[in-house]
Amino acid sequence: MVSIIEGGLTSVPGFRATGVEAGIKHGGLDLLLLSSDKGPIPAAALFTSNLVKGSPLQITKEHLQNGKLGAVVANSGCANAYTGQQGIQDARETAELVAELLDINPGDVGVASTGLIGTRLPMNQIREGIKKAVKQLSNSWEDGTKAAKAIMTTDTCPKEIAIELELEDGTRTTIGGATKGAGMIHPDLHATMLAFIVTDASMTPAGLRSALQRSADNSFNMVSIDRDTSTNDMALAMANGLAKNDRITKKHPSKKFQKGLDFVTTELARMIARDGEGATHLLEVHVEGAESRKDARIAARAVVGSNLVKAAVFGEDPNWGRIVAALGYSGASFDPSKLSISFKSEEGESLILFRGKTTSEENLIRAEEVMGEEKIEIHIDLGAGQESSTAWGCDLSKEYVEINSKYIT
Amino acid sequence: MVSIIEGGLTSVPGFRATGVEAGIKHGGLDLLLLSSDKGPIPAAALFTSNLVKGSPLQITKEHLQNGKLGAVVANSGCANAYTGQQGIQDARETAELVAELLDINPGDVGVASTGLIGTRLPMNQIREGIKKAVKQLSNSWEDGTKAAKAIMTTDTCPKEIAIELELEDGTRTTIGGATKGAGMIHPDLHATMLAFIVTDASMTPAGLRSALQRSADNSFNMVSIDRDTSTNDMALAMANGLAKNDRITKKHPSKKFQKGLDFVTTELARMIARDGEGATHLLEVHVEGAESRKDARIAARAVVGSNLVKAAVFGEDPNWGRIVAALGYSGASFDPSKLSISFKSEEGESLILFRGKTTSEENLIRAEEVMGEEKIEIHIDLGAGQESSTAWGCDLSKEYVEINSKYIT
């Protein structure tokens, strides 16, 4: 049983956090600091698959060689990507500044950034921001929320969650997380997803990494806002072991912990999708009846990522032909004559296509009503097997174009 | 030397064509008929890669088994896709109707459709339309243009071209073509590309097919309007041999003919891109310095297909960071520190990035001016090799969302 508790990162014992206004972006909190009371603890991170990787990712990867981190610093307002050797140096210096003030090794500090590609980190602001943040660090909910706010870009709200659950050995553990969505720092900058997750469970670095990878595959990796993959995506997790449970390792994973972590990352992924740029609808695509898990995943992602499907959702239009076409080019294997599609929301459910045949004009009109709600689900049965998957996204609105067409110059 | 001549399909000796209003869509020409005076001649076609294929594609494929066609009928207003056995029967009957009136075999008629997925062809309208079209067939430029108009959907103008060129053996040959763009029949229907190309060159079916495949790979297959692949895409070519050149075969291709065909398909592809739904800019992405041809292609396609790049082009914003990011996730292999990017238009050229380094603030401001033109080129040098490729697309405008969010119900 997973129960949601108040707060986010700071709801987990042994972690302090905060967010400050360092002056990196024009107004608002823009520097997050997260610190482990115990000092360096098992940590793991996943990075963007983009060939061009931001400088902070390279530093964080390097610092994770020993599987441990004691603190994380992240800024919005500048991605510190495509900034060459200078960028690496700036990310390294950022880690050093945090390390010095927290009295840990620079190698124990993770660094993340989101913002404009190709411009240098404003190091004076970073320096002052870090000083301020170190003084302000606390385990209050308010400071947890400040941390979540400090990584926001075009996000319209902070995104955080915390849960409690009981592990197989009876110990209770807590997981807290904060994320930012696929939005632009300014109307001109590149979309980036950042996620930070902390827990008091006792885990090895490899156990944590493996659990994080598993959860991310079914959550963060199933979110599509605009099919553009950032240079700076990072999901980072830390585990301090204060729960004193039987250690979770790669060889001896905990199903219950995995379930809790899945819950946290799925909720964060849903928050990202719901708050996609210009989004007016949260879109959830459930694919079942797939021949393989991979087929289920690529089918769900193709539908949630299709500009035509997204524009139809914006128009609250049950245009099922576009869904059929997206499934057709997804690469998933299925027999079109066995396909079923329904639309679902708080308003109810309407089956449009049943085993390759349209149901009724009435159901199509009903589907329109169903699509009038904020959260819309598309349920697809490929009729080809037993595997399933879910993907999250949002509609394609005129607001999206507006946000992303503004000048950088 | 390729010279452009007046007209399109009917500019090629031995072909007649026309377009009529059959009443399949709400007003306007909606049925194309193309006929070979010589009767069945070598023909070849390429079809959508979508798993879900429209019924006409299945019939045309079947009829091309012997490598010959004598006529082609195509309609806009209804895709006849996802219509089951009934759809196959309707497409077959369409071919039979044309065959009867032209006194050829049903197996010598190609069929194509574009429009709403999942609804039946209105066979009464098809029947009457075919009768009208057979009577009206002519080799006048006007009827050629009518044919091009009859396949239009949300296209804002007909798309046709004709050229003359001299082959290696000194004979002169003609190539004519018509296409429709990636638009929607109604604001509610699925995007489809259709292209018809005729020539009086003497070719075997395999020679024609191979030349068409080659040309399409560098033209139609490099156009991206919205990354959604239709169920009904078709590019079809016919060659009647009246030019009496040395027969072009798969084993003995003609470089000159290939160059001419490349020219035709590239021009048609450019017309499609320029007239993409809601497009305000034609975007041409040139990638050079790639390690392999495949890398050049996937890099060019990733940039031209990126929603973020497209939105930036709509905003006339030289947001080169988004280009770097798109190249990074394209899968092409390159060293980011060797990358060069410039923007070019009738207004001039501005180099933004040279071997991994930004040039100057002045160039960025200049690039903004350069992007003020209707046709914008992005030139990318990956600095990784000798291969190159070009892709075509258009910007992502609010109009695109408007067009694609309207109701089907």
TrEMBL record, chains A, B:
One GO cellular component term noted in the UniProt record for this chain: cytoplasm
Biological process terms in GO annotation: L-arginine biosynthetic process; ornithine biosynthetic process
Subcellular location: Cytoplasm
CDD domains: OAT (cd02152)
Pathway(s): Amino-acid biosynthesis; L-arginine biosynthesis; N(2)-acetyl-L-ornithine from L-glutamate: step 1/4; Amino-acid biosynthesis; L-arginine biosynthesis; L-ornithine and N-acetyl-L-glutamate from L-glutamate and N(2)-acetyl-L-ornithine (cyclic): step 1/1
Enzyme Commission designation: 2.3.1.35, 2.3.1.1
Site entry (Cleavage), positions: 191-192
Keyword Cytoplasm in annotation: yes
Active-site positions on this chain: 192
GO molecular function, one term: L-glutamate N-acetyltransferase activity, acting on acetyl-L-ornithine as donor
Keyword Amino-acid biosynthesis belongs to the record: yes
Main EC class the enzyme belongs to: transferase
Domain of life (superkingdom): Archaea
InterPro entries: Arg_biosynth_ArgJ, ArgJ-like_dom_sf, ArgJ_beta_C
Site features described as Involved in the stabilization of negative charge on the oxyanion by the formation of the oxyanion hole, chain residue numbers: 114-115
Binding residues annotated for substrate, in chain numbering: 153, 180, 192, 277, 404, 409
Catalytic activity: L-glutamate + acetyl-CoA = N-acetyl-L-glutamate + CoA + H(+); N(2)-acetyl-L-ornithine + L-glutamate = N-acetyl-L-glutamate + L-ornithine
Principal subcellular localization: cytoplasm
UniProt similarity note: Belongs to the ArgJ family.
Subunit-level organization: Heterotetramer of two alpha and two beta chains.
Job description of the protein: Catalyzes two activities which are involved in the cyclic version of arginine biosynthesis: the synthesis of N-acetylglutamate from glutamate and acetyl-CoA as the acetyl donor, and of ornithine by transacetylation between N(2)-acetylornithine and glutamate.
Protein name: Arginine biosynthesis bifunctional protein ArgJ
Species the sequence originates in: candidate division MSBL1 archaeon SCGC-AAA385D11
Gene name of the encoded protein: argJ
